[in-house]
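Task: fold both queries, return tokens.
Query 1:
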Amino acid sequence: MFRHAVYCIRHLMPLILGLILFVSGCAHIPGNPDKPAGCSQAPATTGALAAFSDAVLEQNGPDESSFMLIPRNSDALNWRLALIDSATQSIDLQVFIWSDDESGRLMLSRIIFAAQRGVQVRLLIDDMPKDWPDRITAMVARVPNIQLRRFNPGRVRKGMIRRAFQMSTQFAMLNRRMHNKQMLVDGRWGVVGGRNLGNPYFGLSTKYNNRDLDLLITGPLLSDLALDFDEYWNAPAAYPGEAMYKEMSLEKANKIGGEFNRKILADRKLLNQTTIAATPTDWSEAFEKLPLTMVKGVAESRSDSPEVKGDRGVRLIEQLGELNLGSTDQTSVITPYMIPSNDFLAEVEEVVKEENRTVRFLVPSMESNNHTMAHSHYKKYRKKLLRAGAELYEFKGQPSAELRAFSDTPPIKADFVSLHTKAFAVDDRWVLLGSLNVDPRSIKINTEHMLIIDSPELTGQLLKQYNTMIAPENAWTVTLNEKGDLRWTSSDGALKKQPARGFGQRCSDFFWRLMPVEGQL
């Protein structure tokens, strides 16, 4: 009887879902609307960005690109604005989160200005963190010279019960999110790294600001990045934004546009107090310094397949597993979310104990983690990592003033600093940087993107930052005492209990640890 009931329910699900979609009216979007295929434009040969790129690449070999680490949050926003303001041909932007806040609206306003100058813009945004209502998505997608697509949206758009039902019947597909982050401009410059678009990533949040990392890039690597963007842009899961909301009246469109412009003007009250360029700017002086600050290297781009149904193609983690970087000395990892698999732990133990390599991990302490739920499922792996022979450091929520300056954009000062950097340094030669975390969601569920860069100079710069971040004033060294108990040591002394932002966070940590959600983190 039970098996018969399950069989009936399983086969009735499509009909039930269809009825829900039917009665929801305008609360759903059409399935599979037509969309034109698109490809990246050829790299610009004229214009400011082409000239600045040529100047930087003048001393490079034919296969070498140039790179600059961007650890400071205010610089990360300014360099994005610099590329947008200087664009003459194209902007392709792919991102997981785009928040409706001061920095998010600033980015959008400058992109609209670029489109008004004739720049061709393609925006690809994941649909799960839905800060933009569908009507805003549709309006932006209809701006001349802008195309906007949302990655993997569910058809049901309104109603908690309807959306919950949709998620329960299409969980495997809708649970796969696009976590990739890159911006390509004029086919000559790019920004790749861990930052989404929102105040915590640019130092403008009073709750927490991230310690994060991006790369400014120019050179032949841009061709690979463009191909990667095109693959996602043309994927079946990339849904045309203009189809996400019915045509609206001119009066309503003008009202929404007026509200946006009023917010932009209000945002300048904050932005004008900072070093962020609140209005379009001539960035020539900043670009002219880059030949002296960027370093060269040979790099390749790897990413997950954008498929969300059925066979999802080769996973990024499989591609990374096939790399032979010839490591002999040390691997240094920074990851904001650390939930290692048993295979990962076994590999760490093997390289430490059998190959005599040093493996170091820098992760957030609980006080520095913006997702206590993720931390609550990481903490049981501390002893396993240490017993495998790894070195373990946990970033402080209140690091030194010198280091905190990379996260806060004055006059803003957040309640705490959250670690969000995703980077690997292998020996003194290789940098791996992108969107990948060491957790089940990044490795098994979401799509991710990673650069593999052969550059001793860039690796040296990353290791210098790493060593500063694990210094006693900025991080807790986690060890096991002679009894096998955990201890946290820093310039603030020694602790027997993990550092936290307060009793409330400890209660949340206890609660989330009981929830069977580790495979989704």
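Query 1 returned. Query 2:
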Amino acid sequence: MAEYEIQIKGGTIVDGTRVPRYRGDVWIKDGKVAQLGGRAPGFAKKVIDADGLIVAPGFVDLHTHYDAQIRWDPYCTISGWHGVTSLVLGNCGFGFAPCKPDFRDRSMLTMTRTEAIPYASMKAGINWDWETIPQYLDSLDRAPKGVNCIQYMPTASLMTYVMGLEAAKTRPATERERADMARILNEGMDAGLCGFSIQRLGPNSVQADFDGSPMVTDTMCDEDILNLARVLQRRDEGFMEITQGTGDARVDLAFVEKLADESQRPILWQAVIPTRNNPEIHRRSMRFVERNRAKGRQIFGQAGTVRSGFAFTLENWNLYDTLPEWRVLTTGTKEEKIAKMKDPALRKAVIYANDNCDNNFKAIQAGVGGNPRHLIVQWVENIDELEKYVGKSLGQIGMEEGKHPIEAMLDIAVATGLKAEFLGPNRGFNADYMAEIINNSPYTFPGVSDGGAHTKFFTGGAFTTDFLRWLVRDEQKITLEEAHYRLSALPAHAAGFRDRGVLREGAAADVVVYDLKRLDVEPDWVGEIVHDLPGGEWRRVQHAVGYRSIIVNGVETFDDGKCTGATPGKLLRHGHA
């Protein structure tokens, strides 16, 4: 008789392919799904009772920034808690390779600003044993992992490595530099990269560099990108991830189309985001994807389905960076920030700019907590005379004291040494619009979690659990079969994961077993603060409720919410083990 590692017994199987759910057993052997349904000719070392539970493929998260955290947290939590078994590193053009030894510190400083990853944690948690991409991939391969990952070429790192930081930010590459970048991308693809990524948001990028200047890729010229696209075209392999937006939507979208034409490869374009009241916002993005698919361009739309709140202090805040006046106030040392926030001229400038901003910044601000007048004072560093503000909105405080809400915000922040915490209230989400993005296009999938980034502000890594409890169970806007196809099979296909994202015999055994009735996120909205990062740093987390088992490559990583300590995850070079 055959011996199996795991039998998942009597569950409702939703296999990720849109096939109607059915009751049956899943048998796992040698890291693979050995049999679905029926009676296997043997026994299992472990039996997981899945009666009344859903058995589905592990979730695939295409937009994360766990490049640093995976070095000290094999499970890439919070995503790993919420059923993610495979994810992508190197998004937005940001990462840590290639990197010359004398640029390591500056590379980490960049990530403290653009992705708000604590410097002390990176300094303590990353063991730099690489310079080149092949060396980096070998190092990542050796690192213990509780999830699978693929790696994109971080284009900002590539350009800086070849050109130097100042040159990469101020001029196009020379022909020789372009040849070097193409060669390095080729070498990286040979070693197992799955493509490259870029954030291209112009000189007033919402995610700026450590010194407040744009990121390298934000100002790179078209030809420098197309040079890399042609590498993928010649190889006929690889994928691209792009966040594009320099101010003129027609120009931005025309370039995405040109990138698709030059590369002849799939593009993961973001983000398709619904508002509460205006369906034209997301429908316009969906029409762009549909129009280009009809012309043969392989463009996928990454939908922003995260319902996590924002709670932040002005000590670390960076998500108003699109507005230069805000960027001035929130860059520099803590002492420099406080001095600038006290400056009457700078205050006047930021208030005027915020009140007279364009629709682009209004949309960004709405997505990261809302207009300052709606922000609620959540904590004031235990200063008695400021306790009267806790629970009030900045708009209310401003009315009571005859101040502009931003002036009230800056006063409170300065009085607390920038420790005062401001909360973006939950003003509601439109379930119909969110479901429309998924149900009305075959080329969209949920996500844009930003897992591993901005962890002092929000907890996007819980989006998988929230998507199922909200849109499938509570609102019943999306079927369970469709949800698992969009959470697993479609993103796996779009980003080049081979043999992942579905439950079928012979496929890798990445599995989640959960109780849909109990599925929940705790604490809700902005999560809780935990001090579990290297270097004595802290982050916000939301825990997962309702998962009976999470399995990666046939090995349980979480059993009833408790980590097993197993690290069966793999670096999937070229998308496969």
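Both queries returned. Flag for query 2: The chain has a mean pLDDT of 96.
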